Structures are given as structure tokens and as C-alpha cells.
UniProtKB/TrEMBL annotation:
PANTHER family from the UniProt entry: BLR1237 PROTEIN, TRICARBOXYLATE-BINDING PROTEIN
Native organism: Roseovarius nubinhibens
UniProt keyword Signal present: yes
Entry-linked Gene3D superfamilies: Bordetella uptake gene, domain 1, Periplasmic binding protein-like II
Protein name: Tripartite tricarboxylate transporter substrate binding protein
Family under the similarity heading: Belongs to the UPF0065 (bug) family.
UniProt keyword list: Signal
InterPro entries: BUG (IPR005064), Bug_dom1 (IPR042100)
Keyword Signal among UniProt keywords: yes
One Pfam family matching this protein: TctC
UniProt signal peptide: 1-22
Top-level lineage group: Bacteria
Amino acid sequence: MNFKALGGATMALALSITTAIAGDYPERTVEIIHQYGPGGGTDRFIRAIGEPMQEATGQSVVPISIKGGGGVPAYVSFLQRPANGYTLVSLSPDDVINHALGRIDLSSVYPLVRIQYDQGMLLTSKDSPLKSLDDILAAAKENPGGLKVGVTGSAGFDDALVGQFNAEAGIELETVPFGAAEMVSNTLGGHIDLMYEEYGPTRGLIESGDLVPLVLFSDERLPELPEVPTAKENGYDVTLGRWRGFGIRPDTDPAIIAKLIELFQAAYEDPGYKEVETQSALQYRSEFLGPDEFKTFMDSETEAFSKIMKDLGY
């Protein structure tokens, strides 16, 4: 028997089967698990990037919200699903922070793609006595811990960024965790002094004048908000932003992984998605990253957030 020929035939058969699997994929709905509420920024992002993917494949891309537990239950649920390419997990700075705090182990996920990279800001109500960054700094120094800043969740990205700003500016803003809608209503009602959020979710209230942005955490000012200064231009090097990407089980068929990367890149370049991106001013820092670049980026984020959370006493 010619074992060499048999081995070659076996490899060819395996390759043809793998190619066939990828060619048929996806044959049903792809679910993306995330740790945030239905209708929030991540939920909307998954729907927006999933729309051109559905048009290309005929199969839906559906966000699955698993809230609570600091994001750990969502990650655990993802790990319990089969590695067949039909369950992905949304990745963000909150997952990196959970990894840094020992709550989850990111070595059990394959970083597939990063798609969004946002920039956040501190906003206040139109009726607030705070009218500028200088007002925030003066009030915070006069009464340390007196200014309350609404953030979404606890011991997550928002907390970390406000904590970094506190350290850079030598002030003490106290964070108060809320759900997103509750945070906005408490800010508008004057029950808290400030809130941290990105431009996209607050655009309507900024344009109506109900919310007023006072400082932006980015390298440069937003063309949509040319009057809003950055913390960086005032000497406070706080530029970290909320990014969004996706991960998959590492033991997923490589051909399916390659097909997903191809689908996500095409969706990222789709004119319909680009319009959504522009509406939220996401086009300035967002850049499509494949697995290798995304892994390098996540490693740098892990290093940065590990230090920040340690400095905050976690």
C-alpha cells in the first residue's frame, strides 16, 4: 500500500471538507453575546455591522444581551457555547479590565476583529453652574469629592477613565454608577453634576442644547464639537476611548474564522455602515484591525488598564 499517496489523499479530503464548511457558512443565525443592555451602544453597533453581513449571506446577526455581574456572566455564557462559529462575543475595554482584575481569562478567546474606537467626554445639564473645564477643575479643588459624575456600570471603563483624569488633574471627582438612561435623566434633573458618555448616544441632546459637553478625551477636538476642548490640550494626557470588537472560540474551524474576518471587513467598508459611523463621529479613530493587530492592541490596553485599576485601588 502506498501510505504516502494515502496520506496526501487524506489531507486533500480534509482540506476540501474544510473549504466546503467555510463555503456554506453561515447557514443560520450568528449570535453575538454582549454584557450591556438591549438598545445600548454595543447592541446598536452589532445591529449596524450585522446588517450588511445579513445582506451578503442571507443570515441574521443578532445581539444577545446578558447583563449583570460586571460582564462576567456574558463571557462565561460565550465560553459554554460550542466552537462552531455561530456564537461570538463582543469585546471592549470592560473585558480587558475584567481580565486585569482576574475576573475572566482572555486567553480563552481569539481576538477576531476590532471595528470601532470611540472618544468620550464629560457633559452636564444646560442649567448647571459648570460652564467649562476650568469650572470643573475649580469646583473639584474647592470641594474634593463634591462633584458627582455619572458613569455606566461600576469598576469598568468609565470608572477607569474618570480615575485617570482625577490623577492627571490632581482632583477628586466621585463616580456614581447608573444605567445609561438613568444616568442621562439624573444629569438633566441636576441630581448629579456631570456624566461620562460618547458623542453618538448624546448627539441629539447636545444638538437640542439639553446636554453641554465640557471636555473631550481624545487626541484632537471633534469637528462636530469644535468649541469643546480636549483634556490633552490642557495638559492632561487622558485619551483612552471605548473600542468595540469581536472574539470567537480559539478552537473554531480556521476556515470559518477566515470567512468571518472577510465578512466583517466587507461590512466595515459598507456605505450603510459608514453612514452610521459618521453619525456618531466614529470615523476619526476607528480602524479595522484583524486578529494579529487586534491582539497587539488588546495587550497594550491590558497593560494600560492594569496600571490604572491598580492606581485606583482595585
